[in-house]
Structures are given as C-alpha cells and as structure tokens.
Design brief:
Layout lengths: L1 E5 L5 H8 L18 E4 L2 E8 L15 E8 L17 E2 L2 E2 L5 H4 E4 L11 H12 L5 H13 L7 H8 L20 H13 L5 E5 L7 H18 L2 E7 L3 H9 L5 H4 L11 H10 L1 H11 L21 H18 L1 H21 L10 H21 L2 H18 L5 H10 L2 H19 L5 H29 L2 H17 L15 H5 L2 H14 L15 H8 L8 H26 L15 H9 L3 E3 L2 E3 L19 E11 L2 H5 L6 E12 L15 H8 L7 E8 L2 E2 L7 H13 L12 H17 L7 H14 L14
Parallel strand pairs: 1-9, 7-8, 8-9
Antiparallel strand pairs: 2-3, 3-4, 5-6, 10-11, 12-13, 12-14, 14-15
Helix pairs in contact: 3-6, 12-16, 13-17, 14-18, 14-21, 14-22, 15-18, 16-23, 17-18, 18-19, 18-21, 18-23, 21-22, 21-23, 27-28, 28-29
C-alpha cells in the first residue's frame, strides 16, 4: 500500500485518474497512449510515470506495489514550455498497456466527491454496487465455497457486513444516505460509503483520492489500517492520496524518531534552497534511484501474469442481470418517491375537475361549426394538459444524472440498462394518470358516448403522455442542467403549440415553416383526437349551408385532415416518436458528459509574484524613506464590527421516529439527536467544536444558525442577551441572525462562473449589509481589503483568479 502525499493542487487526483485509466482522452496529446500528469516548473517537465507492478489476486503467486516516480526532462523548446503539454511514458499493468484490457474494472478509482442517491440506504447502496460489479475472477472459488457451505448446512453472514464494520457503517446500515433536501447520514459517513462502493467489488488495485476528507483522525486511521490489512491479506495494490500536513509538522514528525534528525538537518549549517533539478539528480544518482531505474528499464515478463489478473470483460455481470438490477433499483426509487406521483395524481384530478366545469355537456350543443370549435378547444386542452404532465420527467432525470455519470464511468452498467427501466416502469403510472383523466372528463364534457371511441382516446392519450415523457427525458439528458433543460423544454413546447395546427392553421403557416408543422408532435396528437371525436355518430349530420357531415367540416375548418385513417397515422407517429425519443435519451446518456472541461489551475508566479514582492518592500531614497501604501494597510478586521457573544442552554433537538426504527420495535415517538447541549461562544476567542463523525457537530451549528426547518428544538439560544427570534420586538436580532447564517453556512455553494475573489467580494458585501443594514456598509475599498486578507489567510492568494468550478 502506497500513500501519495502532497498539498492541494499538486496533481494527486490527476495521477490517480491516469493510473486507473480514467484520464480525460482530450488531455492526451502525444505518443504511447499516455495516461499521465504533467506539471511545469523552472522550464522542466516533470512526468509522473507508473511502471510495472503485478496486480495481485488470490490465484497469483507474486504481488508488487505500483511503482511510481518522477523524472525531470528538459523542454524540447524552452520558449514553448509554458504553452505545450508534452507527455511521455506509459502506464502498464503486469506488462500490459491500458488499451489491452479494461483498466476501469481492473483498477478501482475512489473519488473524493460523494455522489449517491439520497433515497437509498447505506446497505442498499453497497448491495447495488456489489451486484453490478460482480465477483470477477473469484466466481469459481465462490461457487465451490457456496456448494460446500450448502452441503455442511452453513449459513454465512453477508459479506457486506464485514465491509460496513471495517468502515464504521454498521451503525447506520439502514439509514438513508440523504442529500440537500433529505435528512440522512453525516458527511463523514458519506465519505465512507464512497469508499465502500468500490471495496465491495472485485478490483484488487485501488486508487483512492483523499479518502480522509471529512473524517476524524481516529476513523481515518482505522480505515487506513483496515485497508492495509486487507491489501496484505488479498495480495492487492493500493495507492492512497492524502493531504500533506504543514512542512514543519511533517518534518518534525519524521525527525522525532530515534537518530533521524541527523539525516535531515544540521543546525550548525545555514539552510540552502534546493532546486528541483538538484533534487532529481541526487535521487537518480543514489542507489535507490539507480535500482529503480534499472527495474523500470526491464519489461515485465507477461508469462508471470495470471490470466485472471486483468479483466477483459466490460461489465461484471450479464446483460439480463444488469437490466434486472437497474429495474429493481428504479422500482425502489419510485416507491421512495411515491409522494411525487401522488402529488401528480392530485394535480391531474384538480385539473380534470376544472375542465369538467369549464366544458360542461349541457352547455355544449352540436349544431353548428362554431359549436364544433368549442369541442376542438376542449380536445386541444386535453392534449396540452397530458403533454405538460410529462414535463416532471425532465427535473427527475437531471437530479439523478451526477450519480449516473459516476456509475457509468465506473462501468457499473451501460446506458441502455439505465434508460429502459426508467421508461418501462413509468408505463403503469401513465395508465393510472390517463385513466384518471379520461374517466373524469370524457362523459362529463359530452364527447361521443361510443365505448370504442372512449377506449381509442384513452390509448391515444397514453401515447401522448409517453411521447412527452420521452421527449423531456431526452431534453434533460442533453441539457444536463436545469437552466439549459428548462430553456430547451419551454422552447419545444412553444414551438409545438404554435405550429401544432390549432393556434395557427396549416393554411396560414408560411412555406419556409411548413416542415416544422409536419414534424410537430402536437399536430399528430390533435389531428388523431379530433378525428376520433368528430367521426362519431353525433357529428354525422349535414352542416348548415354545407354538403358534407358537420364533423368533417369542423375538422377541415381547423386546418386538419378529416379522414378516419388519420387517427392511425397519428397513433403510429406518436408511437414512433416515443421510441425515437427514448432511443436518443439512451444515446445521450452514453455519449454526453457533464458540462465543464477539466483544466489545470496555474498559480500566479513570475512577473506577478515579483511585482507583488516588490510592492511589499520598503524602498529608500536620498530624500528619506518612502513607505509603500501596502505597508500601512490596516491588518485584522477592516470592516466595522461589533463583537457579540452567543450562549445556549439545554438545547434539545429531536425528530419524528423514522418508520424503519419503528419496525425494529422502537417505542418512542421521537428520536433525540441532541440532548441537553449547553455552551457559550465569546468574542475574540476561537472555539473549536470537535467530535467524532456523526456526533452532531453539523446539527448543532445548523440549529445555532437558525437553519433547521424541521424537527423539534427546545432550549434557550441568546445573542448578547437577546433571545434569537424573528419578531417585531427585536429587529436587531433579525439582522444579526442573517449575518450568523451567512458566516455559518456548512454547504459549499458558489457561483461556478465566478472566480475565487469575486465570490469572496459578493459574500463580504452580503455579510456587511447583514451586519450594518442595507446601504450602510463601509465602502467598496474596505470590502476588497477584507476579502484580500481573508484570501491570504486561507492561502488562496495564488488562486485568486481561478474559477471555482464544481466537480
């Protein structure tokens, strides 16, 4: 097991992506199918290489850790060194390059971003991951083990329990993971679920990216120690990147060992800066570097690699099992989100009742063409309502895309295994929705009473709803964000409505827009439902001053086609659109990636750094000393600030007992999360709130900041003696509470298109106004000074012009 240490932005994540075969292909520029990470420093290229290492397994006889090192190579052209990415070297597994097998399944990459479906429990999340990844090369061994256990009448414990116990997740195995809108497990537990998702798979090469983020020291040590034992037992390979502590802490920790200080520093000699080239040359001339170079120069003997060590199958299980697993998960999520479908049923019922009273049969005769126009309006309203009812699929699709992209890239399942269940399992919901609408409105409005035409309208509206759902799922997969998808969704509805033949007749559409009329979904829907109604018996009489039936006259007057076969033409067109949209939805999931391209963040150096250093210096002239304005800049809190104290006494926070715990014989009505917590925060004193993961630190901070909107809070919370409440008697407390909420936000929410300093200025402006009233701030200059000082405090000065970004 190898620990990869380094400060932030040092390239640890990029290296792990390269080793796991997940580096963006757009970042590979030159020879050898390189998956590497390149940094530019002092006009030298540092190429991080992963060379040979045997991926261990239970059948192989040898296992070596991944060997990685750094080489410094001169730039081919120093004048272009800052603009050209020159990659060299290659990544091999047991002598095989990454294009000779499936590295995504041979090596598991564990991201530092926790992306999970909040409606699933911890156990369900790990079970789905284990099911999709399969057992790999251990299939024959496990089959034989299961046979012997069955013969010996042994009932083994689930293997997931072992991993959950290692990761400390056994206490929350049946708890929802949760998200921004759903209460769930803590942040540290989510980090452990992210690690557990890949540990339950068959991969013996693990590349873990900062898995200790958000964990307390004891939990992080326990997990890393368990991983070390797991790797040693299974003869596996692991590379774990961790944030490096401060240099003085790290060196102090190393030199604290017996007789180590003499090798690291000499107090009687002055410290000299060592350049990167000197360090690299010294390493390569040392016997360790020479030995490493000799090993890298020898190609790995492929005959020593077991055939099962490297995976050549794209997915861990068969197509049928993948489809079945995704369908079961989709059905589970539909049950967990049943409130959404119940709400849609209620909304559709209300709309049906309104339609019944608006188009009431006693007020709708069938004598003239104008009477037929009212029926036409009612039928068009029916089509529009059913189409709009499918728009909810767009938001539901977008919310699940981040988790889908993660699992797709990890080769859990193909896109079709995800898209087909989301289509097929929604058909019963469509049957209920359309059936509810047709039963309530058909005979009350006074449509043709023939039962055949009733069923034909029912079938047609099912296709309309399925077509609309497929369209909006496709728009959601292409848009990938709510802003883009809503724009395209609204535009498509407006275009379909305008050129659907009802608002603007076919005869009035300009010749250069007539093609849009013929591909309009609304046109086929409206034409079919109009033909189904106006071809009935009650419309089979001659129109006044006419020569054909009244029904045909009404349909023709609206610019539609009155022939009976147009019902089946529209029916077939809608069925074809449904299949095409769902097929395009599957293809969009397969080929499109999240918005935003990976790019390096270049720290400010060179001339800017020199200018910054020169500005901070004090110059001397013959006329006297000139002190720069920067030297006189006020340090500390430059904004007007009045200190206050916060006290809280016997704070108790509880929520309703979850249904899962009631099923496990819990007798209490409420689950107490914080019980009798008291404390005080004084101005000018930094208070550290420490505790193990899931101890309730975030919950307490949210309560003090007034961000808990659910549950039951008891106890006293006072700010400088004022009771924290938003009433007309203490408007001062309201303004202060706004400031506290802004300063105490736990979730990292930023404008992604703004740079670091712009986000800081915006927040400083909001905090300033919250403290001192709107429009009574201390000015833009003080605001900028405050932001600059905070940026330097948290070491964001070199990244002040970098975009914040997301994942």
């Amino acid at each position: 097991m190898t620990l990869l240490l380094g400060p932030p932005t040092s390239g640890k994540k990029t290296l792990l992506l390269a080793l796991a075969g997940k580096l963006d292909p757009t970042l590979k520029f030159l020879i050898h199918g390189v998956s590497g990470m390149l940094m530019i420093l002092d006009r030298y290229f540092i190429v991080l290489l992963c060379s040979r290492g045997s991926i261990g397994n239970s059948l192989s006889t040898s296992s070596e850790s991944v060997v990685w090192t750094a080489y410094t190579l001169p730039s081919p052209d120093p004048t272009l060194s800052e603009y050209i990415h020159w990659l060299s070297g290659k990544v091999t597994y047991n002598g095989y390059e990454v294009h000779e097998f499936v590295p995504q399944r041979t090596a598991a990459y564990i991201s530092q971003h926790d992306l999970h479906i909040g409606e699933m429990t911890v156990r369900e999340t790990l079970e789905f991951s284990a099911r999709c990844q399969g057992v790999g090369f251990r299939y024959d061994m496990l089959a034989e083990l299961s046979r012997r256990e069955k013969e010996a009448n042994i009932k083994p414990d689930p293997d997931l329990d072992i991993f959950m116990k290692i990761l400390g997740l056994d206490v929350c195995a049946d708890t929802m993971v949760g998200d921004e809108m759903l209460r769930g497990i803590s942040g540290g537990q989510k980090k452990r679920v992210t690690t557990g998702e890949m540990l339950v798979g068959p991969s013996n090469a693990l590349f873990m990216d900062e898995i200790s983020t958000g964990l307390d020291s004891s939990t992080a040590y326990s997990i890393v120690n368990s991983l070390r034992q797991y790797i040693q037992t299974s003869k596996g390979t692991a590379v774990i990147s961790l944030l490096q502590p401060a240099p003085e802490t790290y060196i102090g920790r190393v030199t604290s060992k017996k007789d180590q200080q003499q090798y690291w520093s000499r107090r009687n000699e002055p410290y000299r800066f060592i350049t990167l080239k000197e360090f690299s040359d010294a390493h390569q001339s040392f016997h360790v570097g020479r030995k490493l170079g000799d090993e890298l120069a020898k190609p790995f003997d492929r005959t020593k690699c077991h055939p099962a060590a490297l995976t050549n199958e794209t997915y861990g299980i068969g197509k049928r099992e993948l489809l079945k697993g995704c369908a079961e998960r989709e059905f589970l999520l539909m049950k967990r989100n049943s409130f959404i479908y119940i709400f849609k049923f209620a909304q559709l019922t209300i709309m049906a009742l309104m339609t019944m009273t608006l188009f009431f049969r006693t007020e709708m005769p069938r004598d003239t063409v104008d009477d037929g126009g009212i029926y036409t309006g009612a039928l068009f309203f029916v089509v529009v309502t059913i189409m709009f009812n499918g728009m909810a699929e767009m938001a539901m699709t977008i919310f699940k895309l981040p988790v889908f992209y993660k699992q797709r890239d990890l080769l859990f399942f193909p896109s079709w295994a995800y898209s087909i269940p989301s289509w097929i399992l929604k058909i019963p919901v469509t049957l209920v929705e359309v059936g509810l609408w047709v039963i309530l409105t058909y005979y009350v409005i006074g449509f043709d009473p023939n039962i055949t035409r009733f069923l034909k309208q029912f079938l047609l509206l099912i296709l309309v709803n399925q077509m609309a759902s497929g369209l909006f799922r496709f728009i959601g997969a292409v848009g990938r964000t709510m802003g883009v998808a809503n724009t395209f969704g609204a535009f498509s509805l407006l275009l379909q409505s305008a050129l659907g033949g009802f608002i603007l007749s076919r005869d009035d559409v300009k010749s250069w827009w007539i093609w849009c009329y013929w591909i309009s979904l609304m046109m086929y829907s409206a034409n079919s439902i109009l033909v189904n109604e106006f071809d009935g018996k009650k419309w089979k009489h001659i129109a006044p001053n006419g020569t054909e039936f009244l029904g045909a006259t009404v349909v023709r007057s609206q610019g539609f086609f009155p022939d009976a076969y147009w019902y089946w033409i529209g029916f077939g067109a809608l069925f074809g659109f449904t299949v095409v949209f769902n097929f395009c939805y599957s293809r969009a999931l397969a080929y499109l990636n999240p918005f935003g391209k990976p790019q390096a963040v270049i720290q400010e150096d060179g001339e800017d750094a020199e200018n910054g250093q020169a500005a901070s210096q004090i110059t001397s002239t013959e006329g006297g000393d000139i002190v720069s304005a920067v030297q006189n800049k006020k340090k500390g809190m430059v904004l007007p600030f009045e200190p206050h104290s916060i006290t809280f006494d016997e704070v108790v926070y509880s929520v309703d007992m979850p249904q899962e715990m009631k099923e496990q014989s819990a007798i209490e009505d409420r689950l107490v999360l914080l019980n009798g917590v008291s404390g005080a925060f004084r101005p000018g004193v930094l208070t550290a709130l420490m505790g193990v993961s899931s101890a309730g630190k975030t919950t307490l901070m949210n309560i003090l900041a007034g961000r808990k909107t659910g549950g039951y809070i008891n106890g006293d919370i006072k700010i400088s003696g004022y009771c924290e409440q938003n009433d007309i008697h203490s408007p001062y407390v309201l303004r202060h509470s706004l400031g506290v909420q802004l300063l105490s936000r736990y979730s990292r929410i930023y404008r992604l298109d703004l740079i670091v300093i712009e986000n800081g200025c915006f927040r400083a402006f909001m905090v300033r106004d919250a403290r001192h009233g709107w429009g009574l701030g201390s000015g833009r200059d003080s605001n900028s000074m405050f932001v600059d000082e905070v940026a330097e405090l948290v070491e964001l000065g070199p990244l002040r012009s970098a975009l914040v970004g997301l994942l």
